[in-house]
Amino acid sequence: EVAQQRHEVMRRLHETGEIDTVRTALRSQLLECGWREEMRTLVKQAILERGGVGRVSLEELVEELKPRSQSAVPENVKADLMHNVTSFIRRERGEAAPDEVEVVLRPGMSEV
């Protein structure tokens, strides 16, 4: 049921175009806090450690760096993302209770 709710939230974010607003805000915050530059440096290091671009695939880089990249997102950025999506859900539902919203969001936060 949670997976279905998460899917529905993502569907509505896309249908309404709100996903663009959420992504724009997230990208801006990640740039401001230095996260993007940190990830760029990690990617360069991983490529060099493997002997160059021709010796590593995009899939390998993603697999290796995804856990580090997710854990490196500052808590305030995660909180703002949660707030933005929660606000959207409340508007869509006509003021859903906060505990209902959190059940929907927590498992799928990496999808946004």
Structure notes:
The protein is elongated and about 55 Å long. 77% of the residues lie in helices and 0% in strands. With 112 residues, the protein is an all-alpha fold. The chain has helices at 2-16, 18-32, 35-49, 58-71, 75-93, 98-105. The model is unreliable at 106-112 (pLDDT under 50).
- How far do the termini sit from each other? 19 Å
How many strand segments?
0
Strand content: under 5%
Largest sheet: none
Structural class: mainly alpha
Tell the overall outline. elongated
Name the average pLDDT. 86
Instruction: Report the total helices.
Output: 6
User: Radius of gyration from the CA trace?
Assistant: 17 Å
The SSE order reads HHHHHH
**Poorly predicted residue ranges:** 106-112
- The share of residues in helices is over 70%
Summarize the structure.
The protein is 77% helix and 0% strand. It has 112 residues and is an all-alpha fold.
